[in-house]
Automatic annotation (TrEMBL):
<feature type="compositionally biased region" description="Low complexity">
    <location>
        <begin position="283"/>
        <end position="312"/>
    </location>
</feature>
<protein>
    <recommendedName>
        <fullName>Cyclopropane-fatty-acyl-phospholipid synthase</fullName>
    </recommendedName>
</protein>
<keyword id="KW-0808">Transferase</keyword>
<comment type="similarity">
    <text>Belongs to the CFA/CMAS family.</text>
</comment>
<keyword id="KW-0949">S-adenosyl-L-methionine</keyword>
<dbReference type="GO" id="GO:0008168">
    <property type="term" value="F:methyltransferase activity"/>
</dbReference>
<feature type="region of interest" description="Disordered">
    <location>
        <begin position="274"/>
        <end position="326"/>
    </location>
</feature>
<dbReference type="InterPro" id="IPR003333">
    <property type="entry name" value="CMAS"/>
</dbReference>
<keyword id="KW-0443">Lipid metabolism</keyword>
<dbReference type="GO" id="GO:0032259">
    <property type="term" value="P:methylation"/>
</dbReference>
<dbReference type="InterPro" id="IPR029063">
    <property type="entry name" value="SAM-dependent_MTases_sf"/>
</dbReference>
<dbReference type="InterPro" id="IPR050723">
    <property type="entry name" value="CFA/CMAS"/>
</dbReference>
<dbReference type="GO" id="GO:0008610">
    <property type="term" value="P:lipid biosynthetic process"/>
</dbReference>
<feature type="compositionally biased region" description="Polar residues">
    <location>
        <begin position="315"/>
        <end position="326"/>
    </location>
</feature>
<dbReference type="Pfam" id="PF02353">
    <property type="entry name" value="CMAS"/>
</dbReference>
<keyword id="KW-0489">Methyltransferase</keyword>
Amino acid sequence: RHYDLSNELFEEFLDPTMTYSSAVFGSLPARPEELPAAQTRKIDRLLDLAGVGEGTRLLEIGTGWGELALRAAARGAHVTTITLSTEQRDLALRRIADAGHADRVDVRLCDYREVEGAYDAVVSVEMIEAVGAEFWPAYFATLRDRLAPGGTVALQAITMPHERMLNTSRTHTWISKYVFPGGLIPSREAVVREAARAGLKVTADHGYGEHYAETLRLWRERFAERAAEVRQLGFDTVFQRMWELYLAYSEAGFRARYLDVRQIRLAAATVPAQAAPRDDAAAEPAGRPDAPSVTAPAGAASTGGAAPATGGDLPSTTLPAQQGAR
């Protein structure tokens, strides 16, 4: 599976926060030494968006390597964080213990649908892309059901234009075969509609795709610099070429604005949305909102994962398929 490849592999090209999702930089273009601060800036903006502070009961869907849980615990929150990756769980547990927050963070190896209880805030970073369109209703229902009265959801999600999402859902792409099998990047419209069907409404929404392009560039350059070390971990030239292509392909998607990344705040809707007919991939919106912005948000450690650009097909390699777990 994508996230169980090797913690050591990800350590070679991620920054010390071990954050595998888009950063938010102070200015562009970004410099390598700015990446750790840009990742913590992203985390803090998501935690602010969710209203996480002293005593907050926080559910994180998709642990990653624990940085968001660490920063939430440092604010005084009580964190339950879940993952399907044993590799990520084990390293997250060590990092949390080393930081002295083991009493505030509960790391669980389970599916998001198995979680019970009520939380003041739910945060999920780049998880929806790996869920699969057929499970979006269950995903958003879980977000709603886990919220305590007055609670807030903060999502970070990669998005693509709605028509491109529909076309992608009906095609077999290189990324879906070799990097993120079973996933689908949603459109902003699909997120809004699926949230509404689950009884949630969007209360804030910021896009900043240019920052993901820079994040991916820094990862790609670092990965290339560490080629010898990656080879010593047992990853051959074919794998390394595949991984560089994945990072470059994703970067190009954001630079061309075929992809965006958004931080979205959700809250319980006063009046539940009426059911609407679905298309093949997700609920078809009655009307399209304005085009997503690509400016930096005014206001996450990663849980999940880097940008899978799933636009067109590319020549395949001989690598086995890998299943992501964000």
